[in-house]
Amino acid sequence: MADEQNKDVDQVSGVETTGHQWDGSKELNNPLPKWWRYTFYVTIIWTIGFTIAFPAWPFVEGATKGLLGYTTRGELAEIVAEAEAAQAPFKDRIAALPIEDVADDAELLQFAQASGASTFRTYCSQCHGSGAAGGIGYPNLNDDDWLWGGTQDAIYLTIAHGIRQTDEEGYATDDTRDNAMPAYGRDELLEEAEIAAVVEYVLSLSGQEHDAAQLDTGAVIFEENCAACHGDAGEGIQDLGAPNLADAIWLYGGDRNAVTYSVVNARAGMMPAWSPRLDDATVKAVALYVHSLGGGE
Amino acid sequence: MADQAVSVEENQPLYVGREPIFPKAVKGTFRTLKWWIMAVTLTIYYVTPWVRWDRGAFMPDQAVLVDLANRRFFFFWIEIWPQEFYYVIGLLVMAGIGLFLFTSTLGRVWCGYACPQTVWTDLYMYVERWVEGDRNNQIRLHRMKWTGRKLRLRMTKWSIWLLIAFLTGGAWIFYFADAPTLAVAFFTGEAAAVAYITVAILTGFTFVFGGFAREQVCIYMCPWPRIQAAMLDDQSLLVTYKDWRGEPRGKHRKAEGADQLGDCIDCNACVAVCPTGVDIREGQQLGCITCALCIDACDEMMAKVGKPRGLIDYCTIADAEIEKRNEKPWDAWRRIIRPRTLLYFGLWSAIGIAMVVMLFIRDTIDITVAKDRNPTFVTLSDGSIRNGYTLKLLNKNPEPRTFRISIKGPASVRLRLQNGDPSAVLVKTDQVRSVKAFITAPPNWRAGFGIEEERTELRFWLEDLSTRERTSVGSTFVAPE
Q1: What residues in A contact B380, CB-CB < 8 Å?
Q2: With pLDDT > 70 as the criterion, what percentage of chain A qualifies?
Q3: Which of A133, A235, B119, B343 is placed for a possible disulfide with B375 were both Cys, Cβ 3.0 to 4.6 Å?
Q4: Is the peptide bond before B248 cis (omega within 30 degrees of 0)?
Q5: CATH class in words for B365-479
Q6: Closest by alpha carbon to B398, among B430, B376, B365?
């Protein structure tokens, strides 16, 4: 065993040992290089300063705030503010112009389509899908069939004011799209046989397979009950939000069962009004994006 | 005391402290060659970013520019886009094979002459000698206690080193931005933070590596000496001490029986000039970077004592065996031109030629397509089917170009763009433009219009309206089952 005066030096390496032994194995005393050790001390001092300057020590109620007042949330807010400041000139111009004029300016249109696409993915894709292809009950925005109109302005109005919003939700305005189709079966407005006949007639409008024997009856029923909104030839009326029944696109399905269900129970989808939640420039941008998806009028 | 498992009398330290090296100045053929190589390589390094090259009004006029912000690499008349990075990979492979080629013929010639570590260390040693004097003065100064004179000399030397280091780090950033603009911005404090950080890091490393780390970089840090062991063979030129001629060495004093001794007069000149502090007379070793300064030093001594030059000389191991038998060694060209080096040279030139050919036949316009997958197709109200595509149009020309986009496929389909007219699409100078395209098949497409169910092949063509240059890319049209 080594003591202070008589250090134990390992003969093989010439290095003094720590004096510890494990089954005859001894530990050499090779201290860390000085520069390494002092660097380590510096990091400790740095750490103390760091934990004072920045949020660090957790307590029961929150943590120390740090003298510099740094927060990750604050850093994010700065980045967002920076991005918003960069977008502001475009958004101000978009907000000031009618939507058709925005579309005429190539630079603004590019900005609107890009920012509209990003807004669409945040707020619209939940129902309409990330590719805007919709689904049963949620319109496909890529096609050229529009319930309430597919011009830039019509799309803008629909997004801003919503569809069938009620006052209770606080967002309904005079411009909110609204209509109601009678539930011909559920409310017993038509007999079952009459519904069957009108369904055959509706199927014939879009050139689908149908029972020709019922067409005459169906046509009469259609004219009396449906044509006022859907048009004499079932071509739909956009001002009323009445869908075109003679085309290839069906929001709730176009087969016999789906059409029958629609006549019996009626359909009434809803869409939120976005104008109070999103600023005007953003709504215009989304409208221009949707319009540019390929089916805009 | 426990029993020793092994009994070694001698103390063997695991780590050796660095013995400071004070290489002596030397004159001679190889030293002159090295000065020239240093002058040329350093000039290339410092001057290149300032060379101008006219590319027209829309493009940068710096001859060599790595434009990271715009993802472009300019090299005189060549411009590389990120997707053409294979040129850079080709150059790196050529550099690698080039090192193999040079190493198999000339040994560690890269280390001794062209490696930045060697070149900058050489420059730093030159400054050191200029300030502190040659080897003996340096040793005396090193052993001296700190005095005003020592402090003054050290501060002078370090200041000049630091200045060189700063210029070295400073020159680097000019390769990445317009040099004159950046130089002004740098000294007015308006350059980007990354510029200052880069200069600081490179200045620090140049200062430490050239001034203090020196041969330790070669011996402990660099992987190349290890790889080189596999590259060298007995046909490679090495700096060789011809021991069959030099030994037994000794001071040629008459009393010691000079006639019994070899040519080596044991003057230690070869050791004194060595920048890595090795004794070449111990044979090939890791520390030798084949800078050939010991050849110069020895030649000078041999001339003084009236013996033929070349006691230390470039010599292959195979020739050494022949010379030992007192026979005439081979001509140098027979050592250089042999299957191995020819193979390296063949590979090296093949890659080089392939790259040059590709450079000349590459298109200056290009088109790529990404088909919409969400949704894959859209049914329109009249029953027609529409597909969407995102096209990227590349214009690598130094001026804006107008293109016509057309499709080759079933005659029944129609092309239109989301914004603008497909027969006149402007793409700015040296830019990529992304355009959205729609292709629509007629309502009665099932009645035989060349449209298959599910997939139909078609091709987008891009035509430069001014040069009639054309390129195309294939895609598909998707229809319902």
Answers
A1: 143-145, 248-249, 295
A2: 97
A3: A133
A4: yes
A5: mainly beta
A6: B430
